[in-house]
Amino acid sequence: MSTQASDRRRPYRNDRRAKAAAGTRATILDAALRLFVEHGYAKVTIGDIAREAGIAVPTVYASTGGKAAILATLMYRGVDDPVVERTLETVRTATDARMAIAATARGVRLDNERHLEIVQVMVTAACVDQRVQEELDEVVRRYRRSLGVLAGRLAELGALKPGLSAERAGDMLWFLLGLPSWRLFITGCHWSWDETERWLTHQVTAALLAQPTGD
């Protein structure tokens, strides 16, 4: 076989290997999530994940790392969900304060709804694994920075209540739209996602805007 022919085929083989590796990684992550949700993070071993995924233990480590690394990857599925950037772009360009609030509430609702199971897992896992706690702290920091975009935009629009700084508004947004609020209403109080989104949107509007109006 000529060198040119070999070079033409190599990109195809490399692409095929990359797709196979990505498929293996996805299989491992999905298996881990099922086990974490069903049995709890602390009780699941890498061996359990390997068996659930139908993959050898060394392959699990090579593809995704240890248990904490697997959970961290699952956690960042929510942080990196495309809905986050779409929501932030809508807020950055919003010309109406209420529209910006509604867009943020809808975006964080969708992100939490899609990834509620892993949120539950990571909160409980953080109690028993310091590495998970550190990753959770970073997730919270990034979540709060995203909410800070809304606070900043409301300040730019001159929509915040007199004397309310963007920084203080960001703290209030975390209280109202952060991870604990969605978990409280959805899993603790058994509200629907629609009910929770409507109520939290109203609360943010009433708490932050200079002249809030009803729904």
From TrEMBL:
Residue ranges: DNA binding: 45-64
Top-rank taxon, per record: Bacteria
Residue intervals of the HTH tetR-type domain: 22-82
InterPro entries the UniProt entry points to: Homeodomain-like_sf, HTH-type_TetR-like_transc_reg, HTH_TetR
Keywords carried by this UniProt record: DNA-binding, Transcription, Transcription regulation
Keyword Transcription: yes
KW Protein transport (keyword) present: no
Pfam families reported for this sequence: TetR_N
Protein name, UniProt field: HTH tetR-type domain-containing protein
Species of the source: Streptomyces canarius
